[in-house]
Amino acid sequence: MTPRTISRVGLVAKERVEAAASVLTELAAWLEARSLQPVFETFAARLAGVTTGREIVSKEELPKACDLIVLLGGDGTLIGMARRVARAGVDVPIAGVNFGSLGFLTEITLGDLYPSLEGVLDGTAPIEERMMLHAKVLRGGGCFTDELVLNDVVITKAALSRIIELSVSIGSDRVMQVRADGLIVATPTGSTAYNLAAGGPIVQPVVDALLLTPIAPHMLTNRPLVVTGTSTISVEPNMNGNDEVFVTFDGQSGHALQADDVVTIERASRPLCLVRSAQRSYFDVLRQKLKWGER
Fold first, then answer.
1. Sorting pLDDT into bands at 50, 70 and 90, what band is 25?
2. N or C: lower Cβ tally within 10 Å for the chain?
3. What is the CATH number of the domain that holds 201?
């Protein structure tokens, strides 16, 4: 693997994780000892007590201000940064260090941190491309919402609403009519998120596929479906009376849908570059997080 040219390293930390403060300070010194410039995201700087003498930028500015992002946090923190990297239109890799609970995405442990960074610098670290989704909500002949998503797009009913009905198409082909609490359209990376909780399949992240998983379907014949990653999926809610239907993107943003809205989902033009742990495979992570083999 050809080493990436890295001179500036962005540092991000999950908010209110005080234990990350000493790691940020130590990491910044480690980078500077190798003639690399640490670039602190605003909250990470505050957490580490950095006020002057080092560059500090916002979360939105960070992707274009560095060549690598080191993130101390959980999967939610990484998803938020992945969406910002995608919106910035850059291919800056993210090394996620687990300060959360599950950590399917932030799989690098504190003990792996410096060996993983050495691997990025010398070109030996595994950097995996993860599919992202480009989702739009079409309304009244125009584009109402335009989002880039790492895990999933979810169309669901309100808490007290009855079952909703969704028409699902791929390209010009009608695929299914879903009567359920909702529908998840997920990437392979997102297969271990809401998709897994809803009974969908686990798909290895390098597989070129999209997953459609009904949430608590009313019909037993509405089963999860795996389709090619080149598919363009359209979801139309069939709304009657007081139906309330919502769309959410990675669980981090979303809004109510109106009658005649169409949600379209396809592969984004640019994947996320994720630094993998050189010490553990994807299946090692699955066995650990899902406790496979334990009695």
1. very high
2. C
3. 2.60.200.30
